[in-house]
Amino acid sequence: MKVGSLGTHKVLGLAKEKKARFLLASTSEVYGDPLSHPQKEDYWGNVNPIGPRGVYDEAKRFAEAMTMAYQRFHKLDTRIARIFNTFGPRMRERDGRVVPTFILQALRGEDLTVFGDGLQTRSFCYISDMVQGIYKLLTSEYAAPVNLGNPQEMSVLDFAKKILEITESSSKIVFKSLPEDDPQVRQPDISLAKKILKWEPSVSFEEGIKRTLEYFQQRLISKQED
Ligand code: UDP
User: Which residues contact 186 (CB under 8 A, 6 or more apart)?
Assistant: First the structure.
C-alpha cells in the first residue's frame, strides 16, 4: 500500500517539479472480481477494500485517482496503463504467480497446484507484446486509462493441462483451496488500445509459453551445474 500510494505520490511530485511525463503502471486488479465481462475501461470495478487483495487493489485505485488529479489540477502529462496478466522469461521462480509455478512444477515432476476448481479464468499476455503496448501508450497523447493485455482467455485448469501437454510432464493436477477474493474471471477488452495505439498482441500463447519454458529449463540446468 505504501509503494502504490505514497510511492506514487512522491514520483508524481518529482514529475511535476521536472515537468516530466508520468506513466502509471496500473493493473486489471482495479476491476477487482469483475461483474462485467470482458472488462472495459469505463467499468468501475468490484473490489473488496478490506480483503487480503485490498492492499494492492486499493493502492492502485488510489494511484489512478491521484494521477488523474495531478493531470487535472497541475496539468501534469500523464498516462495510465491497466496491465493484465503478463508472463515471460525472467519471472521470479517463487513469486507465487501461476505461470512460473506451473512450469516449474511440471519440469520438476511435482504436482500442479490448481486453486479452487480451476474454472476461474485469466488471459495471459506475452512480455514483448506488453512492452510494445506500454511504449506506444507512453508515446501517445492519450491521458485516460488504457487496458493492455491479451484477450485470449482460458481457465486455470485448462492452463494447467496445456502446461502438462507442452512439457510432456508426468506430473498430476491436485486441487488446493481457493485464495480469498480470487477473481472468478478476467479478460481485457482492448478495443480502445487497438483504436488509439494501433496495438494488439501478436505472440500466441503457445509461442510465449515455449519461450518461457526454454528460459526455466535453462535455469534448472545451470542450477544443476552449480
Ligand atoms: N493459481 C493456481 N495455482 C497456483 C497459483 C495460482 O491455481 O499455484 C491461480 C490463482 O488462484 C488465480 C490464477 O491462478 O486464479 C492466477 O493467479 P496469479 O497469482 O498468477 O495472478 P492473479 O490472481 O493476480 O491474476
Answer: 28, 31, 34, 39, 84, 85, 121, 122, 123, 153
- Our answer on whether the CB atom of 169 is closer than 6 Å to any ligand 1 atom is no
Task: Note the pLDDT of residue 95.
Answer: 87
Nearest CA to ligand 1 atom 11: 115
pTM, 2 dp: 0.96
Q: Whose CA is nearest to atom 4 of ligand 1?
A: 98
Choice from 103, 122, 174, 212 to test ligand 1 binding pocket (greatest atom count within 8 A of CB): 122
Residue showing cell 511504449: 135
79 vs 68: CA distance, rounded Å: 9
b (16+ CB within 10 A) / e for 171-184: bebeeeeeeebebe
Ligand 1 proximity of 81 Cβ (cutoff 6 Å): no
Residue pair 55/5 in contact (Cβ under 8 Å)? The answer is no
Give the separation between CA 186 and CA 121, rounded to whole angstroms.
Answer: 6
CATH of domain 2-225: 3.40.50.720
**How far, in Å, from the CA of 6 to the mean position of ligand 1?**
27
The grid coordinates listed for 82 are 491497466
The predicted pLDDT at position 219 comes to 92
Residues in the chain with pLDDT < 70?
none
Distance 3 CA to ligand 1 centre (A): 22
pLDDT in tens, 78-135: 999 999 999 999 999 988 999 999 999 999 999 999 999 999 999 999 999 999 999 9
